[in-house]
Amino acid sequence: MAPGGPPGGIGHPRGLSFFWNFAPSSARGVVRSGGYTAPRHSTRKPPVKVIASSLRKGNVVEKDGQLYVVLKAENFHPGKGTPTTSVDMRRISDGVKTTERWKTTEQVEKANIDEREYDFLYDDAEGFHFMNPESFDQVAAQPDVVGDAAAYLEPGMRVFLQTFEGNPISIELPQKMVVEVTETEPVVKGQTASSSYKPAITNIGVRVMVPPHIDVGTRIVINTADNTYVERSKD
Q1: Domain boundary among 111, 131, 146
Q2: Which of 33, 46, 123, 127 is 20–30 Å from 109 (CA)?
């Protein structure tokens, strides 16, 4: 817990050890210990016109004079009819959520965002608090911005935070992280090779399917995007 940070947390077990190990951030690779990489900076550019089908989570679009951050975007291609893109968005000004549907080829205005490294401090009723390691400025991200990434956050962890006009809109974790298996079950007899993976719980509370040879206390590498096992840690 960072000094001054309140106890407890939103959606994350506390009091569990975690293997940091930050890799060079430009690689977005396995988190390793030690070292510091200077934050990556973005240059603000004017909004650009893009087709609706290219929208992704974290994009900021302008509609009717209001700015919205994309929470989810799906493209639909019916057998008959016009392909469409359904976009769940949150209005930046007041947090109101809405859903918009465009033709996939329809042009929308996408704003450029700022992306740089932040250190996670703590979470409380106001949200998840991060600090810019260069300026020491702090920002708070709402739970729906952090989403499932909350399970991986620990005080001192460095992440990439996307902001628009100072408001956090999206978070990006390292692609891979090293964790420890704290609980797992034996392999069920009769399982085939294709179904031989077994459930396990890690020291940060994330559940993952692991090969049968993985035991309690084993350090493993997992993919943070989908909570999948990658390999046994080599360190």
Answers
A1: 111
A2: 127
